[in-house]
Amino acid sequence: MKSIYLLKQSLIIWKRSDIVTLLITVVLLSSCTGLTESPYTFVSPGNYYKSEAELESALNSVYADFRDYASDYKTLMTLELLTEHAMPAHASKDGVRNFNCWQGVNQATTYNIQIWDSGYELINRCNVVLGRGDGVEMSDEKRNQIYGQARFFRSYTMFTLLRLYGGLAIPESYTSGLSGLEIPRKTVDETYDYIIKDLEYCINNLPTRSQWGSSAYYKVSKGAAQALLGDVYMTRGYMDNYNKTYLQEAKKHLGEVISSGEYELLSDFRSLWYWFVEEASKNTKESLLEVQYGATQGSALHCNFGINATDESLGGKMFQRSGVSHKDYLSYQDNDMRKQCFLTEFTITGTNTRRYFEPDYKGFSGKGEGKWPSSTPGNMKYYDRTKSCYETGVSKANFIVIRYADVLLNYAEVENCLNGPTADAYDKLNAVHTRSVSSPIKSGLSKEVFDDAIYQERTWELIGEGQLYFDELRTDRLGKAVYEYKTYMYENGYYNCLQLQFVPQKTFLWKIPQTSLDSNPALVQNQDNISDPRYPLK
Q1: Which of 162, 188, 165 has the alpha carbon at shortest distance from 243?
Q2: What gap in Å lies between CA 425 and CA 405, rounded to an integer?
Q3: Which one of 1, 185, 429, 459 has the lowest number of neighbouring Cβ atoms within 10 Å?
Q4: Based on the number of CB atoms within 10 Å of its own CB, is 359 exposed (0-12), middle (13-18) or buried (19 or more)?
Q5: Per-residue pLDDT for 236 more than 80?
Q6: Chain centre to alpha carbon of residue 425
Q7: What one-character-per-residue DSSP string does 258-326 give?
Q8: Which residue intervals of 166-243 are DSSP H helices?
Q9: Which of 10-19, 230-239, 243-252, 362-371 has the lowest mean pLDDT?
Q10: How far is CA 66 from CA 155, 188, 307, in A?
Q11: Eight-class DSSP state of 382
């Protein structure tokens, strides 16, 4: 196997006494998951992790890897294109048309967008911290805080992979030799149990946001772990025939975030985004966890979800892989503050030439007076329009991973599922809704209609943030939504929208990348998915 061959080749430059410590640093399961060797892996933990500062350095590498993992544009783009909330751009790069029409879903190469490999690389970094910390002289409180942060990132990563692939191969430690690298997959329930155990540890050992203090708001907190655990229990409950025991646990943990007083909705939705308030948008009281970007480590998301234009008024160079669906953009009320977070017009710097989006042209560019250069509006959640971004191409806009609005909407959904549209459920939903729209949600809705209202609110609030695919899958909305809208787009000639090839069911799982299967005989591939018979294709 290639990765073992590379490892053996590297061993010849080491003395025999150094071999064991070198092996410890190899990326976890490099032979059984197809992971990529990274430069950091050739530092020996046995020789290096001796002090608290050195263990903190290892934890910093976890944060750095999480930044790349959580805000990877291919993952975010793919998750949106697979729903009815996005449509492909003019360019056909990165398979945007094929994802949008669900082509080749049972091929092991289709979803090889590195999320499996990068996920296990991140898990390994977490395991190195957890495996070496006991040998470091430091206070138990500090050690437990470091462990809590590592276990949070491990659980976050596993939860993402679980929802995409099903039961996971769970490595208990980092690599310590060439034997025992073949790890079979656990069941879905065993994987959930492992994730829950991690998050319970995090809740018991991590400081709250206020305890971390303003200089460390970027760190994982108890509230982030509670919110994630609530999401885990909610998803598990929905996928287990709406299991009330799991849903009660979800409500408990989400409710504890709400009652903690640590978080609140900002009064103006635009204050969450760098485009409008720049540095003041970062690590606010609405943010439970966000990926940090700055002048030296910038984001490229503004490129992939921008428009096909370069202009000083827009900040850094932009292009577009995918964009918000026309249906969703047009669904906002004109007075909804969130509608102002889509780029639909601009004036070219130094001229009177205006470019503006015209939905009637169905994604074709250059058809009207304004000659809008892209198939859809741009999503300002990723943009930095400062002059420094224009000059360097580096966006300093953070990416919010978990925010309080999501917690409130999750709570409202679980409460409605358990007890119907109670006053408590209305309160949480309207807190999000009336932040951006003056009139509250209509009272007296049925349980089913109220649930639809929650999902619509999630769309308006969270579009472009990589969450709606998971929402639709667990609520069994995905197949119907994909079938109806993508068929409509194709039959009405929207740009780059191909005929739908497959309709997903609630049980849909991605295929494990073929490279990982080839290198690990212990991995078992997911069974072929069957198109939902409720929505026959033409």
Answers
A1: 188
A2: 13
A3: 1
A4: middle
A5: yes
A6: 26
A7: HHTSS----SSGGGGSHHHHGGGGTT-TTEEEEE---SSS-B-HHHHBS-S---GGG-S---BSEEE-H
A8: 188-205, 209-212, 222-239
A9: 10-19
A10: 12, 23, 27
A11: G
* Token pair for 286: 């609405």
Q: For the chain, what is the total number of helices (H) and then of strands (E)? A: 22, 8
Whether the CA torsion 238, 240, 242, 245 is positive or negative: it is: negative
What number of residues does the chain have?
A: 538
pLDDT in tens, 421-469: 999 999 999 999 999 999 999 999 999 999 999 999 999 999 999 999 9
What are residue 348's phi and psi, to 5 degrees? Answer: -60, 130
Mean pLDDT of 262-288: 98
Hey, how many other C-beta atoms are within 10 angstroms of the C-beta on 148? 23
> With pLDDT > 70 as the criterion, what percentage of the chain qualifies?
90
Question: Lowest mean pLDDT: which of 28-42, 109-123, 325-339, 340-354?
Answer: 28-42
Residue 19 has pLDDT above 70, yes or no: no
pLDDT confidence of 205, banded at 50, 70, 90? very high
Structural contact between residues 4 and 178, judged by C-beta atoms closer than 8 angstroms: yes
Please give the mean pLDDT across all residues of the chain.
Answer: 89
State the greatest distance between any 2 C-alpha atoms of the chain, in Å, as a whole number: 75
Q: Is the Cα dihedral 225, 229, 231, 232 positive or negative? A: positive
In angstroms, the CA 370 to CA 120 distance is 46
The two structure tokens encoding residue 479: 């197949």
In this structure, how many other beta carbons lie within 10 angstroms of the beta carbon of residue 304? 20
Rounded to two decimals, the pTM is: 0.91
Q: Are 473 and 490 in contact (CB under 8 A)?
A: no
How would DSSP label each residue in 61-103? HHHHHHHHHHT-HHHHHHHHHTSTTEEE-S--GGGHHHHHTT-
Measured distance CA(450)–CA(443) in Å, rounded:
9
